[in-house]
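Submission sheet (multi-component)
Chains listed below:
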Amino acid sequence: MARPRNFDERQVLGSVREQFWDRGYTATSVSDLMEVTGLGKGSLYGAFGDKRQLFLRTLDEYRAEQFDAVRGALEGPGTALERLTGLLEGVSDGYRNDAQRRGCLLANSTSELHGQDPDVVSRARSTYQAVEDLLVACVEEAQRDGDLDRGTEARELGRLLLSVLQGIEFLAKTGMDGAALKRIGNTVLALLPRT
Amino acid sequence: MARPRNFDERQVLGSVREQFWDRGYTATSVSDLMEVTGLGKGSLYGAFGDKRQLFLRTLDEYRAEQFDAVRGALEGPGTALERLTGLLEGVSDGYRNDAQRRGCLLANSTSELHGQDPDVVSRARSTYQAVEDLLVACVEEAQRDGDLDRGTEARELGRLLLSVLQGIEFLAKTGMDGAALKRIGNTVLALLPRT
DNA sequence: CCAATTCTTGACTTTACGGTCAAGATTGCG
DNA sequence: CGCAATCTTGACCGTAAAGTCAAGAATTGG
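Outcome: structure written.
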């Protein structure tokens, strides 16, 4: 018994995400968000709160999706080593094939806001910690499989892989050649200590 | 035969750099720059042009300094492998020991502006390309020294090291534990293929 | 059909932004 | 000294920012 909403929330959040992804948080104005969603100011504020709340919601959905994608890749079929290979290739393919080279929304947001918004930093920290843990678990499994040597701690290898993933993400934004980006992933994988 | 400037240009540029480093480009206002430099608006515009010009100048000085520091580390005394080790340690120490975890000004600027300012991207690209080339040259030297195996292309190893450096820079901004950051550098070094 | 409830619209307020400029201050040179 | 040249100061301008809110529109239950 009330007027129903005139928009699809998921669709609106999708447009908002694209806008923040393209421009970053600070450079995105509420007018931009109105334009891109087709919503009036009052609807936007009424449904999602202010600009920062909307941004954080967008960011939370994004990082949840990204985390799920990583988990899917690392807990999927195939041997642990194959899954690590698949993840590295998938991630670098994603970044290098994006014509705009926008990188990762969470990484961009962290770089932009780490000095101003502790809530963004804590979200970044917990997300990357979780990804690290997935990587470590997969390395451990590859070690148990006898594909990787146990001489180097799984934790250290997992962190190195995380670091390389983030390095690739960044270098993609600098416009590094796509083939070179891909080979970076191949190179770490080739250097992982085999049995 | 004219009124002399009332400020030290280098000092002003230093304050401006700190401000852009703390807040980023968009979130820094001209008022912030006035406050932090002590200059009036007219002086700022008269001496350095508009906000963007001032930013680009700041950025150019920064990346020149950073490049020189890398070159110094990679062309200094010691064996090539020792110099690579020193660079990795120096960089990760720099990032992890910064209480504010501000990361690298050039990397922050690239992440913030890559979708909006091609001039920033091209500056980033050329700087990282130059650093990559230094790394590759040092790897080649270590291979000639017989410290590193020739089985993996120096170019690939150099790019991997660049990627790890940028990964460490980023993870420092996420608040990753300092000891963990340091070990990432140690781990890549340990995995480089020895003879 | 009416009432209660929620949503939409867009005008409005306040503040801050980047940038310009005229007026006055400070210098060296002649 | 006084004039030309440069620098400083701060008022000013137009624009755009984030956020509020009152008035009207759409819906369902009674």
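Remark: DSSP finds nine helices and no strands in chain A.
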